[in-house]
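Researcher: Here's a chain I'd like modeled. Treat it as a single chain, no partners, no ligands.
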Amino acid sequence: KAANRFSMRDWLTMALGVALALLWREVFSLANLTYGLPALGAAVFTFAAWTAVLLVLGARAKWTRENIFLAVVINLLAPSCAFQWSEEIRFVSFSVILCGSVMGFLSLAGTEYHGVTDPGSIKEAALDFFRGVFVNWGRPFRAVYALAPENKRALGGVLLGLVIALPLLAVVLLGMGFADAIFDIYVFQAITSFFADLGRGTLLLRTLSITFWSLVFFSSLYFLRHEPGRKEPLVRMNPLPVSALLTVEALLTAVCALFAVFQFKYLFGGAEAAEMAGGWAEYARSGFFSLIGVAAIVMATALACSRAGRESVLGRVLTLALVLLTFVMLASAAYRLYLYVLAYGLSVMRLMAAWAILAIGVCLALVAVKSLRAGFRFWPWAAGIILAMWVCFSFLPAGKIVSHYNVDAYIDGRLDQIDATYLYTLGPDSVDALRKLRESGLEWNQEGWPDGHLDTPLIRNLADKQSIPWARIVLG
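Model: Modeled as a single isolated chain. Structure tokens:
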């Protein structure tokens, strides 16, 4: 029983777990996953989670430069969701907040062998995340049982008292409601209407949901406070011989060089490729995402083989050649994206693709530095720069940028058609652009939109949703 007893901070951990469960249930209800709720809910819950972890750890929190930077980035990224209408950008931000918070909490608790900027910390964090969420579910029940005296009849007496008291309280409350009209209105009727509105099924599901999330958050917080730190890494891998790394780099460099030749001959040098692929837009669309994936794989391989560059001249030459050839791939991807935007206009996903190209380019430059300098730490610099880049990107008014580009290009004749339905989904950021489109000197049809270019069902859709403030502004 002594081993199961909770300290005051452990009871605080249990209370914080219940509080986080109630907040989570309120903020991230599946029926309310719309723009407004997650936008503010992500920020509120993120701040609450970091506060709860700091309260649980207390003076045991092990602050480092790395986890301080991570805490600042995550708590800046959370409020950015309140200013971002794009679901795609918010989804990535939510994912970064979740993963970054888990790694930051484990770093503060000092449970990991690797530092938060070491690639080994990712594997340890993934394992400890699932362990922490489920491993301590039984501790609250054992702690409550440990409070009972040695005579087990006392625990049974408490249960018997609850059975007797609950119906007695119901009768007493009913009598108090008859005795005092004010009490009846503000207390008794409020309680009865609350349970009546919920219904038995809803009440049961809500109770189970809150219990589940309470155990999840309690187990995680308890894990952070009591889990001892690792004394050695999970797996120790023997480094590959330099000859193996050189072989991989040589073969990959040859293939990338062949691909670069085709890019300079067909994509950058003429229109033959476009004619063979059905036009520039189709040629760009057919290979853009594949090219981004290949560039990322080649970059990761160059990073994994960078040790050969520090230990041999041939390895340094091959690594730098791989980096330069991957830049050619990125230039090809950027050019394809440019052609695709010229043909079909800008979108949030294409804006995110441009950010991905820039991020991979930054990482490539850091790989080149690592192959030349033995003491250079790639992961801290890469993680810090990429996180800072995403925080800046998350505050961009993506909807405004996309809508203004598409409308201007359509009015100027650079776009043959415009997807007005998509502009509508961009939310308030597209109001000015839609007003500009309406006020342009184009020929109008009966619905009041440019003839032959905008679908009339869109107008009916807007008219049906005049309760939305920004839709009323567009409709005038």
